[in-house]
Design goal:
alpha/beta, Glutaredoxin, 5-stranded mixed β-sheet, two-stranded antiparallel ribbon, 4 helices, 7 strands, about 25% strand, binds zinc ion
Length: about 150
């Protein structure tokens, strides 16, 4: 199957916070931050916050999968390495992100996060799938395929 849809994602720079538009189809080119030239991290979950969430979601044409978590949550800690591995597998296909619900109550309340971890999938800014609780890799792959 060929696809002509663009693979744009917005990635916050881990060093300076600048939002960078990246073509994930060209992830092999090792894109760098437009401001500070630090290489952008594509193979680990992107940290989203109340401040950058909307900009990232609105301008990303790839599916976005978000892990809502908190540092004190045991099941979240179990989920974290699975989710990190998932991010490596999704390079070039999806934007894998995480939101600390304690530090970002705005996004957490908009998504009505009652229990963590909660995994949500967004396409074109709309939620298309959600799973509450720690899940295995196979379930993450099912979720990201949801339409
Ligand atoms: Zn930067």
């Amino acid at each position: 199957m060929t696809t002509t849809t663009s693979q744009k994602a917005v990635l916050p720079c881990t060093a300076c916070g600048t939002l960078n538009r990246v073509d994930l189809a060209r992830a092999d080119a090792h894109p760098k931050c437009g401001t500070c030239r630090v290489p952008l991290t594509l193979d680990a979950p992107v940290v989203l916050t109340d401040a950058n969430f909307d900009a990232v979601i609105r301008h990303s044409t790839v599916p976005v999968i978000v892990d809502f978590y908190a540092d004190w949550c045991g099941p979240c800690k179990m989920m974290a390495p699975v989710f990190a591995d998932f991010a490596k597998r999704q390079v070039g296909r999806a934007l894998v992100a995480k939101v600390d619900t304690d530090r970002n109550p705005g996004v957490a309340s908009r998504f009505a996060i009652r229990s963590i971890p909660t995994i949500a999938v967004l396409r074109d800014g709309k939620e298309v799938g959600r799973q509450v609780g720690a899940v295995p890799m196979g379930r993450l792959e099912e979720l990201i395929s949801a339409r």
